[in-house]
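ingest -> validate -> predict -> emit
validate: passed (alphabet ok, no gaps, 358 aa)
predict: started
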Amino acid sequence: MLSVADAQHLFVGHLLVDSIQQKLRDLLLVFNRSLPIVKPLGWAPPHGGYAPTVAKTTHSAISDQRNGDIVIYINGEYFSRDEARISVFDSGYLVGDGVWEGIRLHNGVFPFLDRHLDRLFHGLETASIDIGMGHDDVATLLQEVVDRNGMIDGVHVRIMVTRGDKKTPSQHPANLISGPNVVVIAEYKQADPEIRDRGITLFTSSVRRPPSDTLDQRLNVHSKLHEVIALIEATDAGADEALMLDTTGAIATCNATNFFIVSSEELWTSTGDFNLPGITRGAVLEVAREAGIPAHERRFFLDDVYAADEAFVTGTFGGLIPAIEVDGRVIGDGSPGPVTAHLRTLYEKLINRVSSDG
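emit:
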């Protein structure tokens, strides 16, 4: 039986081991950032806070001239693309006070619409913004917008809700002089197939994803500056997008998509505490488990990523996109992997099935 002194020594020893492990992870991150990043031919340092050219991103879309003629919904009225305006006193413009949601239109149907609306209304309720509409009303509005534009397929719709216009630049709701501003933009947007076939590169940002008591990352809010800064760090380093860690040093997510790795035929993604509860993320976990692929929401670290067999990111717009390189380290053999391809096929079948069911 351990004496009190021995137990105390053992407890202190465990604390020291935990501390050393965390220090090693931090040192690994610092070392990783000190490694030279191989930049594409012709790459030049960014100017004015953005990369001069962006080779590929998860939101790269095929150009569509029809988008020049779309009409945009703003607070009950429709405006042409060139005439759509919001006040400079809008709460979202002033302080990022708003919530939004992105949804696809596939064969005349909004896949997973209930899940998207649940996430939208959860954000609105958390932010105490009363939109004056229910789930069915918003669903009707979204359908009205795409119908007004004559859209059936290959469309991405974004609904944005802010607290409303203020009488003066301020955070305080007491300065409101209007109800919420509601904007719906529907565009023809098909993901660039080259990005899906080739994959993207990631760079680990120094910007951490904060916990829910700071800025809840599970809310789809207008306040995205920390993600933009992370993205700029990544593009400055010659990568396409940013991989972000949580405050413990574990993998959280990417700046605009959710992140997965394949390790020993198992699927890993983060715990969900420091990232948006992605609709595509959830669907991928579902189809993986239905197919008998072990899928885990767990804490893992950069060394796990570097040693992974495959990696990919997910999002409503792009679906599943391979991540072939992280911090200059090639993932697997540097090409989109078989598990990623299999999961993409399963996900696309699910989309088709959901759309057929209406």
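The longest helix spans residues 4-34.
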